[in-house]
């Protein structure tokens, strides 16, 4: 297990996330972005990085993913301006109001649960943390994904 590797992974994830978010900002020049001329100034990260930070905090503090704690952290740190999808925002709002995450997630999308990609978007630090034990990567990735948020 390597927290340093997880942090390095988060560095790359967060920069890529913030750069990618520039393609969705009103007033940004797509040709300039494609040409390698991104806008100046600080770029905001999105929900993907925010949730990856929650995941790293869980690993740092506990050494493994606990779905209940992770779902609560996702809900507690949900900031709408980060660009959460409507389904994820609804689930997190319900969790924040006390609905158990399994119920909130299970009710999403007409009872089908989340069909999102959140687990993949935030999962890189988890793979880096457990890189020396691929069975553990798979086990913990399932815990990360099964929170009902993609």
TrEMBL record:
<dbReference type="InterPro" id="IPR036705">
    <property type="entry name" value="Ribosyl_crysJ1_sf"/>
</dbReference>
<protein>
    <submittedName>
        <fullName>ADP-ribosylglycohydrolase</fullName>
    </submittedName>
</protein>
<dbReference type="InterPro" id="IPR005502">
    <property type="entry name" value="Ribosyl_crysJ1"/>
</dbReference>
<keyword id="KW-0479">Metal-binding</keyword>
<keyword id="KW-0378">Hydrolase</keyword>
<dbReference type="GO" id="GO:0046872">
    <property type="term" value="F:metal ion binding"/>
</dbReference>
<feature type="binding site">
    <location>
        <position position="48"/>
    </location>
    <ligand>
        <name>Mg(2+)</name>
    </ligand>
</feature>
<dbReference type="InterPro" id="IPR050792">
    <property type="entry name" value="ADP-ribosylglycohydrolase"/>
</dbReference>
<keyword id="KW-0460">Magnesium</keyword>
<dbReference type="GO" id="GO:0016787">
    <property type="term" value="F:hydrolase activity"/>
</dbReference>
<dbReference type="Pfam" id="PF03747">
    <property type="entry name" value="ADP_ribosyl_GH"/>
</dbReference>
<feature type="binding site">
    <location>
        <position position="46"/>
    </location>
    <ligand>
        <name>Mg(2+)</name>
    </ligand>
</feature>
<feature type="binding site">
    <location>
        <position position="47"/>
    </location>
    <ligand>
        <name>Mg(2+)</name>
    </ligand>
</feature>
């Amino acid at each position: 297990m390597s927290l340093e590797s997880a942090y390095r992974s988060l560095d790359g994830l967060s920069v890529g996330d913030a750069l990618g978010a520039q393609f969705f900002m009103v007033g940004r020049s797509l040709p300039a972005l494609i040409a390698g001329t991104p806008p100046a100034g600080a770029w905001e990260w999105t929900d993907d990085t925010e949730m990856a930070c929650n995941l790293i905090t869980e690993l740092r503090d506990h050494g493994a993913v606990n779905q209940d704690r992770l779902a609560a952290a996702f809900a507690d740190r949900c900031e709408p301006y980060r660009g959460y999808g409507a389904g994820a925002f609804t689930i997190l709002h319900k969790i924040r109001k006390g609905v158990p995450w399994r119920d909130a997630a299970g009710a999403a999308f007409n009872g089908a649960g989340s069909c999102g990609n959140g687990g993949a978007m935030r999962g890189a630090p988890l793979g880096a943390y457990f890189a020396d034990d691929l069975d553990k990567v798979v086990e913990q990735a399932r815990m990360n994904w099964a929170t009902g948020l993609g």
